Amino acid sequence: MAERGGPLREQRARAIAELVRRLGAVSVGELAERFQVSEMTIRRDLQLLHDRNEIERTHGGAVALERPTDEPPWTQRLGQQAAAKQSIGRLVARSIPDGSTVFLGSGTTTLAVADHLAGRQHLTVVTNALPIASALASSAVDVVVVGGFLRHREMSMIGHLAERALEQMRCDEVVMGMRGVDPDHGLTSEHLPELVTDQAVMRTSNRLTIVADATKLGHVAASKTAPVEAASRLVTDSEADPDLLAAIRARGVAVEIADSA
Asked: What is the number of other CB atoms lying within 10 angstroms of the CB of residue 202?
């Protein structure tokens, strides 16, 4: 009790803030266990950090603050390169065989894949993206939604709860979008707390398809998710730089170009 407002509390608060930034999301229970204090004490610590604008409180825990990036929310990105995203989505959807289980990550290009899967049967889609689950909700596709902490800008579920669920899953293929795809700097994204969740998604399958329109190629974002060689194939559009595509192929990644037809 004597520690309230004292140096021990401040030291613990700093450690909690760093943990939230690194993991993206934490729960009161796991923090209480980690720091060997009561859940009430942890709630007071989280409220302190929330008041300082260091974290965002949630029911039962906390998530990392969304820091400004050059990536707009998914709703604003829907109209960007829309034709290219639809052609990519169509090509990828056609390549997914009946009877398979595929993970669709968050993003507007993967949403285009989901749109082209909506008329299919005998297919299971696993996702942590609420827009994708919604797009397939009225279809015959079996949908498995991974829970976790909500990332509002992307409407995706991230954090330790999502990662624990993903440990139990195996998919025939993972389809993900990336903010940046570069032969040297790899697969990169803007939101550091989502990094660990994305890496857990990748581990659910030995086949990773990256969907990225031409504007994503050569771009390098803030956090490196994986080397470009982690991808089995890249599906992009006809505006992609041929030199970049050649360099990506040289890394052992199959490259497919989606036309607008």
From this structure: 20
Helices (H) and strands (E) in the chain, counts: 10, 15
Classify residue 46 as left (phi > 0), alpha (psi -120 to 50) or beta: alpha
- Cα–Cα dist 23/159, whole Å: 6
Residue 222's pLDDT band (boundaries 50, 70, 90)?
Answer: confident
How far is the C-alpha of 237 from the C-alpha of 76, rounded, in Å?
20
Determine how β-strand 124-127 pairs with β-strand 142-145: parallel
Task: List the structure tokens of 67.
Answer: 């820091």
Strand order in the sheet with 56-58: 25-27, 61-63, 56-58
CB under 8 Å to 162, separation ≥6 — which residues?
A: 128, 146, 147, 148, 149, 197, 200
Give the model confidence (pLDDT) of 67-121 as tens digits: 545 555 556 666 667 899 999 999 999 999 999 999 999 999 999 999 999 989 8
Token pair belonging to 250: 């040289």
Give the pTM: 0.74
> CB neighbours (10 Å) of residue 242?
7
Name the β-bridge partners of 56: 63
